[in-house]
Amino acid sequence: MELSNASQMALQAKERTIASLFTNDDRAKSMSIKAASLFLDYSKQNINDDELATLFSWAKEQKLTENITRMFAGEKINNTENRAVLHTVLRAPNSVKQTILKTEADEVIETEKRVEQIVNNIRSGKSVSAAGKRFTDVLVIGIGGSFYGVKVALSALNPFCSPSLSVHVLANIDGGAVHEKLAKLSVDTTLVIVISKTFTTQETMLNAQAVKQWMRSNANNELIDFSELMQLQWYAVSTNITKATEFGLSATNVLPMWDWVGGRFSLWSAVGLPLALAIGNNEFSQLKNGAYEMDQHFLTSQFEQNMPVIMALVGLWNRNVLGHSSLAILPYDHGMRALPGYLQQTDMESNGKSVNKQGDHLSCATAPIVFGQEGTNSQHAFMQLMHQSNEIIPTDFIVALQGSSDLKEHHKVLVANCFAQSEALMKGKTLLQAQQELIEQNFDKEDAEQLAPHKVMKGNTPSNMLLLDKVTPYSFGALLALYEHKIAVQGFLWNINSFDQWGVELGKQLGQQILAVIDGGEDVSLSSSTTALISQFKSANFCK
Ligand SMILES: O=P(O)(O)OC[C@H]1O[C@H](O)[C@H](O)[C@@H](O)[C@@H]1O
């Protein structure tokens, strides 16, 4: 990021307090914005109007509008994989699909209809298992982008999920996870959906094999033909029909994916099938409608009134001008507890890069370290560091005005805590205030002076406050699209490719190499540390 006067602006910003920027009541009003049922207050950021204006004009100079337009139009902006980035088209009306995708639109529309039909058939009991029973459970197998979207939406939209069809997600390659899931399930009432764009991902394939084996061993083999069971009880979402059919899936049960939909942006495709099964077709459409409205807001609004652009620029300001390396995501919402994990992938896998699109080394920092947890749990854990360490950690607070349960008192306390934390992070507590407080609590002057430094809170921590009226499929769809676009804008401005993820490859490759050594091979290229660890593992497992 090359802002000509960045260091001077940083100096100025670091010398002031955020609270001092509130010179009149207008700040909260002018630094807040509504879009697609969401409300963003960014007035507690350490930025003033002039600095924001500088960022807006800088973004214009960097051809941000052109980049956004190119993405929506389907240009191959993922240059290292020569792919378009068109998850937005999946939530657009059919006429837009036809304009952008041309002949491919037919397959996309047809797939949407297939999803709806499967959802209707399963939820109505028209489609039953090989044992003739109604499905009570869906087991989803997938990882990374083929997991986080489904997981976060299932949890956030839990009040909308059918009580008679439970959806479970299996991602990690850990026998413990497999046993934990399968212990709750019965072969006769479980539908399986394997989600894997490539259908080669090691974790997903091994988990799918284990589940298939479990079904084979536990089905009533005298009465049930296993290939019929696969036909009735297994679906997949993948670009790789060949691999899926080799695995044993019927080709008609493999719903397509397209190379122009990145895994971490794929919830809007047939990858959303498990979610649609849980919440129903109408609610799944609402999720897409909310995202579409955010897309339209993003595409058509001036930068000064554009929620994703504002969030992106404020994020760049924090990261590159003020030098803050992290971003805390704090949803004050039990349903949204999976959001920090989801955004870790969306943000860090997209923008965790250090070369630009041309392959030249970048001199500036890119994606922040994203972490978080649901409030108020985070207040009783890492927020101590946010209040009193030397680290300044910009924060996104997310909360719904109306709670999803009937426990109104709980919601009042939850919201009060959320607002209180944003205020406390901004204002902090000075030494003088701490001393004063202690004296008011009847400490004598000397004790008050000794204790006071321990009670100082640095304050000046910038935060966004994102409000949803209520967590609904519509507002949650808008929220996910908001973050998708914020991250894309940051990638455009850093001139990086946010849509590839080569960084995961080396670990996968070495994983295969190490597996070969565990299985008896030799590899002199491994470090002595790793070689010794492998020996330890082998003696614990194979030398008893
Ligand atoms: O959908 P799959 O092909 O199984 O890939 C699953 C995941 O694999 C890797 O971890 C990639 O980094 C992710 O972006 C991808 O979503």
What report would you give on this structure?
The protein is an alpha/beta fold. It folds into 3 domains: 39-73 and 296-389 and 396-420 and 483-494, Glucose-6-phosphate isomerase like protein, domain 1 (Rossmann fold); 87-279, Rossmann fold, CATH 3.40.50.10490; 503-542. 49% of the residues lie in helices and 10% in strands. It has helices spanning 6-14, 26-30, 49-61, 64-73, 94-101, 104-124, 148-156, 175-182, 202-218, 226-233, 241-247, 273-279, 281-300, 307-321, 339-351, 383-388, 408-427, 431-440, 445-451, 473-494, 505-518, 528-542; strands spanning 32-35, 38-41, 137-141, 166-170, 190-195, 234-238, 254-256, 326-331, 369-372, 395-400, 463-468. The chain has a 6-stranded mixed β-sheet, sandwiched between helices. Strands 4-3-5-6-7 form a 5-stranded parallel β-sheet, sandwiched between helices. Helix 5 (94-101) runs antiparallel to helix 6 and helix 12 (273-279) packs across helix 13. The mean pLDDT is 96. Residues 143-146, 196-198, 201, 204, 263-264, 349, 501, 504 line the site of 6-O-phosphono-alpha-D-glucopyranose.
